[in-house]
Write a structure and sequence with these properties.
The structure holds two protein chains of two kinds. By secondary structure, chain A is of the alpha+beta class. In chain A, strands 1-2-3 form a three-stranded antiparallel beta sheet. Chain A has a three-stranded mixed beta sheet with strand order 4-5-6. In chain A, a hairpin with a 2-residue loop joins strand 5 and strand 6. The longest helix of chain A is centred in the N-terminal third of the chain and has 11 residues. The radius of gyration of chain A is 18 Å and the shape is globular. By secondary structure, chain B is mainly alpha-helical. The longest helix of chain B is centred in the C-terminal third of the chain and has 27 residues. Helices cover 75% and strands 0% of the residues of chain B. Chain B has a domain of 245 residues. Chain B is globular. Chains A and B meet through loops of A and helix 5 and helix 7 of B.
């Protein structure tokens, strides 16, 4: 099984000039937690993820103070969420994301997701976005194992 | 003294180049120190047997294992959240008022720095301070700068507070109680004077938000302790270890033995994962010490330290008091611009030679009494006070400063080099003036 067979071909993308709030709205309406950031010529510039948006709402030093068990409401969180919404997608996205091609074996796709802590990988063909393969596409193989006769192909 | 000028020149050149590279920060200081050590060993400027031994001219394993033991204890203890508990408790006691926050958080930083490593202390104090300042919507920088100052001042107070003191204690055979008796009282005065001056000078920047009390009430320190059982074990071992430090001279145990015993006990009773703990140990700092000791060993073996000590002896015999006070100011200025660890690593054997010169015995035969004569005491304490407090001079004067500046910058609150000098220069000047008075009145 290759990435090209497992991927979704219909991909919701967002422009680098959109705001983070618009990206958040698109995530809500489509249910997709990862949006490829694509310029007018169809090149993938980066990925914007729910994880990155949520991280932006928290203090930069979070890793050093740990879980905010002790901080109550912590008002800056609210203000920060509003500020983050106004940022341009290009400033929040993760640039130069990991990508795969249609021929990438699914085992490699799965290993990339686990080793690099990503849930979605854009699938490129000649530098253009042709689909996106997500963790759910891998999990599907648990629900519906590949029939024996297909395995060697 | 220098017997072979070629080896002396080689050892001296390697040391000066290494020192310059460490100061320039172009190559990591540990890489520089280890390279220098490899070079002096390869060139046989010092025998490996001498360099890796424990005698004069060898690696001071007492320093290494004392640091390692304390690092292990702190690494386990900080996981319990106890330090965050202290900081939030203090912020609540300050009712969110910035001036009181500066005073209380600095006092906690100074106290913790006196008993733990300065860098470790600011590594957990700076982030929690940023969190509190953000929660209160006040500027964090005045509090962070006060904490830098407090950590360097507090670290000077005890044998284990700052690496220079660990090194000096080991060379001069001065114990934990000696440092408590000779350094803690003046440090308390210096801390009080510096923080009072700091608050007076910068009180305009320390404005409280109208809803400070209400905002701070939202914090709940009791939830900071994530593992109460582990916390009790850590506090038990810490108490035992400090009791061990207080009694180490009476028990005839080296401080490193006490620290290592504490670390071993805590590893046993905390059931902490040793691999994880060892990952968090600052091996680079420990290896920096090892590399430096080997390089300084070459300076000793080739006679450079002895020759420099001759010059010092000539001056000290002429005017012991003036020489000690000069050493204090010189140490403060040097430590303000370069790392105080290599400086003290070089000065220590020189002062040992000085003591040997006064006692007219070889360095290896020096007894604690000969190291701690009335003439020698002002030298040891001047080196300690100058090297530790000099760290406050500039933003790069001590590792703790650099660590706080890094955390502040990543959080969007950069501390400028010049901005820091506005605080660093007056505070260092006042503290060294106070030290001069102390050395003069008590020892000369």
């Amino acid at each position: 099984m290759k990435a090209g067979q497992a991927m979704a071909r219909e991909v919701h993308t967002i422009s680098p000039d959109a705001t983070a709030a618009e990206a958040a709205l698109l995530m809500r309406s489509t249910g997709h937690g990862t949006l490829p950031v694509v310029d007018s010529e169809g090149r993938v510039l980066g990925l914007i993820t729910r994880t990155a948006l949520v991280r932006r709402c928290l203090p930069e030093y979070l890793e050093q103070v740990g879980d905010l068990y002790h901080s109550g409401e912590f008002q800056p969180f609210r203000d920060k969420a509003e500020e983050v919404g106004l940022l341009a997608v290009r400033d929040v996205m993760q640039p130069d994301p990991l990508t795969v091609s249609e021929d990438t074996p699914l085992a490699e796709v799965a290993s990339l997701m686990i080793m690099h802590h990503v849930r979605q990988l854009p699938v490129l063909k000649d530098g253009r976005l042709v689909g996106i393969v997500g963790m759910q596409d891998i999990v599907d193989k648990i629900a519906w194992p590949e029939p024996e006769e297909n395995r060697d192909s | 003294m220098i017997e072979n000028s070629t080896t002396a020149i080689a050892a001296g050149t390697i040391f000066v180049i290494a020192y310059a590279l460490i100061a320039s920060e172009r190559i990591h200081r540990t890489v520089v120190a280890l390279s220098g050590a490899a070079l002096v060993l390869a060139l046989r400027l010092v025998d490996q047997e001498v360099a890796f031994g424990t005698g004069h001219g060898g690696v001071d394993w007492n320093v290494i294992f004392l640091l390692l033991g304390m690092m292990i204890i702190v690494t386990i203890t900080r996981r319990t959240g106890i330090f965050q508990w202290m900081a939030i408790k203090a912020a609540k006691a300050a009712k969110g008022q910035p001036i009181r926050l500066v005073i209380l958080l600095s006092a906690i930083t100074a106290l913790l720095s006196a008993f733990l490593d300065n860098v470790t202390t600011v590594l957990f104090m700076a982030p929690i301070t940023l969190l509190i300042a953000d929660g209160l919507a006040i500027k964090p920088i005045p509090i962070l700068i006060a904490q830098i100052l407090a950590s360097n001042i507090g670290g000077t107070a005890t044998l284990i507070g700052d690496p220079p003191n660990i090194m000096i204690g080991s060379t001069a055979k001065l114990g934990f109680l000696d440092f408590i008796i000779h350094l803690t009282p003046p440090i308390i005065v210096i801390f009080g004077a510096c923080i009072a001056g700091y608050v007076l000078l910068f009180r305009r920047q320390l404005k409280a938000p109208p809803d400070a009390a209400q905002r701070i009430a939202g914090f709940d320190e009791s939830r900071a302790i994530t593992d109460p059982a582990l916390c009790r074990r850590c506090l038990f071992v810490l108490a035992l270890t400090f009791a061990g430090f207080f009694a180490h001279q009476a028990l005839h145990l080296e401080p490193a033995t006490v620290a290592l015993s504490g670390a071993a006990l805590l590893l046993l009773i905390s059931k902490a994962n040793i691999t994880e703990i060892l990952h968090e140990i600052e091996w680079s700092t420990l290896l920096f010490f090892v590399g430096l000791f080997v390089m300084v060993g070459a300076l000793i073996e080739t006679g450079i330290i002895g020759t420099a000590a001759q010059w010092l002896i000539a001056r000290a015999e002429h005017s012991p008091g003036g020489t000690a006070i000069t050493l204090l100011w010189f140490s403060a200025i040097v430590s303000g611009v370069v790392d105080n660890i290599p400086f003290v690593a070089t000065m220590n054997p020189m002062l040992a030679e000085l003591a040997a010169g006064f006692a007219n015995v070889p360095v290896a035969a020096l007894t604690p009494d000969q190291l701690q004569t009335a003439v020698m005491m002002p030298f040891w304490w001047s080196l300690s006070l100058g090297a530790c407090l000099g760290g406050n001079f500039t933003l790069i004067g001590a590792s703790a400063n650099v660590v706080v500046a890094g955390i502040a910058e990543r959080s969007g609150h950069p501390i400028g080099f010049k901005q820091y000098l506005l605080y660093g220069i007056p505070i260092t000047f006042v503290s060294i003036v106070l030290c001069s008075a102390y050395i003069w009145l008590r020892y000369l």
